Amino acid sequence: MRNQSTGRYIAVLLGAVALIVTAAYLSLTNGAFDMTVGDIVRTLLRIDPQPEHDLVIFDFRLPRIVIAALVGLGLGVAGATIQGVTRNGLADPGILGINAGAGAAVVIFMFFFSGQIKGAGWFSTMAMPLFGWAGGLTTAAFLYLFAWKDGKLDPQRVLLVGIATASGLGAVAMYISLKMNPSDFEMATVWMTGSIYNANWKFIVAMLPWLIVLIPVIVRRSYILDLLQLEENSVRSLGVAVEKERMILLLGSIGLVSACVSVSGGIGFVGLMAPHIARRLVGIRHVRMVPLCGLIGMALVVVSDFIAKTVFSPAELPVGIVISIIGVPYFVYLLFKARA
């Protein structure tokens, strides 16, 4: 039975990887400038490289695919962690306001360093995740302040406070963006809807350290997420420092969300959908679910970005809108399921 379960888990992981690779292949070969597999292989292996192929692959398509994959990975893992910590299947970085808090902080950064936005200098690129983390951390503190009841987080209060916080911080971000000059306002507006069309290698370098450090911390503590589903007194009786572990996991997830938001804007619903899909496929054990959530998040964002840039070509939708088209009905379905 255990071998069957392990075999199913490996098969699901390989299926997710295959979907990601297929979507990446389609994104590389399709677009305003179509390329063959041979063109891509020759360009990547530096066999008779062509300047126009180098430009399309290395400056436009490949950074965008890598950013989409990394953002999906971070949001998927963060979503699983937040749902585990709050014991709320409807929790999501966007619904709880963490996306909005990180986004508002990044918009404030854009406002004060507006001259550096278009150039995407190293200072602005590397500093944005730090500002996003500060905004996400402030939002988390606000959630704790108003959702704390009888010595623990109340899941219903967390959801209600998160929705109110997200609305308020979204309004703050919009107000600040209206104070920007027209060109920066346009960029900030597109960014707030969730877009990776401006992806470049600097953004990858800026967010990669956060993922490299924080994802292993969360994965190593994934068994704690299983224990946190028990009654708090039962968890304490097992010798677990409940609040300390919750804080570490919450801070880690906020760091992941902030790094993602700083390069992609407010992409929502990935952290909501990925854990539910993962649970249906491999069960509730977080040691298996958390890595799978990362892969499902990668697949969601890479596939959605491909749809966003090709379906309405030559016009292009922000990837956040495409994911929302999928995510809103799914959220409504989960709400009705929770009431049943």
UniProtKB/TrEMBL annotation:
InterPro entries to which the protein is assigned, alphabetical: ABC_BtuC-like, ABC_transptr_permease_BtuC
Gene3D superfamilies: ABC transporter involved in vitamin B12 uptake, BtuC (1.10.3470.10)
GO biological process annotation, one example: siderophore-iron import into cell
Main location: membrane
GO cellular component: plasma membrane
Location within or outside the cell: Cell membrane
CDD domains associated with the record: TM_ABC_iron-siderophores_like (cd06550)
Residues spanning the membrane: 6-26, 65-82, 94-114, 126-146, 158-178, 199-219, 247-274, 286-307, 319-336
Assigned keywords, A-Z: Cell membrane, Membrane, Transmembrane, Transmembrane helix, Transport
A GO molecular-function annotation: transmembrane transporter activity
Pfam family name, one: FecCD
Mode of membrane association: Multi-pass membrane protein
Family to which this protein belongs: Belongs to the binding-protein-dependent transport system permease family. FecCD subfamily.
UniProt xrefs under PANTHER family: FERRIC ENTEROBACTIN TRANSPORT SYSTEM PERMEASE PROTEIN, IRON-UPTAKE SYSTEM PERMEASE PROTEIN FEUC
Protein name: Iron ABC transporter permease
